[in-house]
Design brief:
This protein has about 210 residues and is mainly alpha-helical. It is about 65% helix and about 5% strand. It is rod-shaped and about 165 Å long. Keywords: Coiled coil, Dynein, Motor protein.
Length: about 210
């Protein structure tokens, strides 16, 4: 539920407020709020917004929203947070002991700002680790690709060598078969001639005149 009055200053760092919609009527002429930024939320912003919800309020019928800042914290921001906490405790006359709603509210804001700063740093570290892991994985994959390409070239060389050996064996076997066939034909022809000679001799012996 949106508040009907603008929220007071907070120790939590927020982005500039933006107009969401008009609740009752269009804003008065000359009092236009900044346009809603059309920027895709990053994972860090989504996490921040889920832990530290945006502040909303209505002013002159216009609904405003203010998201927690995703700007990285600096060392100076940490120092300023401590100084701002001490100053607000004094300005709002927070009691040092006992139950004090003011002190409780300011401490809660301080813890939220610490969470904001820590979460951003953690997300950056996580992003760096993921990037390094991705680079490492990419390098490993590149090495694996080179290794597989070398193995493929070696296997292609082996296949080529085996194909050449197969062709050589086929040619040698074909030549050997031709030589065997020629030798066999020559031997058959030789035996045919011998057989014809023997047959001729036998016929000559049978046809010779018999002596009385």
């Amino acid at each position: 539920m949106a508040s009907m009055i603008p929220p007071h200053d907070s120790l939590v760092k927020y982005h500039s407020p933006v107009v969401v919609t008009t609740a009752r009527a269009a804003p008065k002429k000359g009092k236009k709020g900044p346009a809603t930024p059309e920027k895709a939320s990053t994972q860090t912003e989504d996490i921040l917004n889920s832990i530290l919800p945006p502040r909303e309020w209505t002013e002159d019928g216009t609904l405003w929203v203010q998201y927690v800042s995703s700007t990285p914290a600096t060392r100076l921001d940490v120092v300023n947070l401590q100084e701002s906490l001490d100053r607000k405790l004094q300005q709002r006359q927070a009691r040092e002991t006992g139950i004090c709603p003011v002190r409780e509210e300011l401490y809660a804001q301080c813890f939220d700002e610490v969470i904001r700063q820590t979460l951003y740093e953690s997300s950056i570290a996580f992003g760096m680790r993921k990037a390094l892991t991705a680079e490492h994985t990419k390098a490993e994959l590149n090495n694996k690709v080179r290794t597989l390409e070398a193995e493929r070239e070696d296997l292609e060389g082996q296949v080529k060598e085996l194909q050449e050996r197969c062709e050589s064996i086929k040619d040698r076997e074909a030549k050997r078969r031709e030589e065997d066939d020629a030798a066999h034909a020559e031997e058959v022809d030789k035996f045919k001639k011998i057989n014809e000679q023997l047959k001729a001799n036998l016929e000559a012996m049978l046809s010779a005149p018999q002596r009385s």
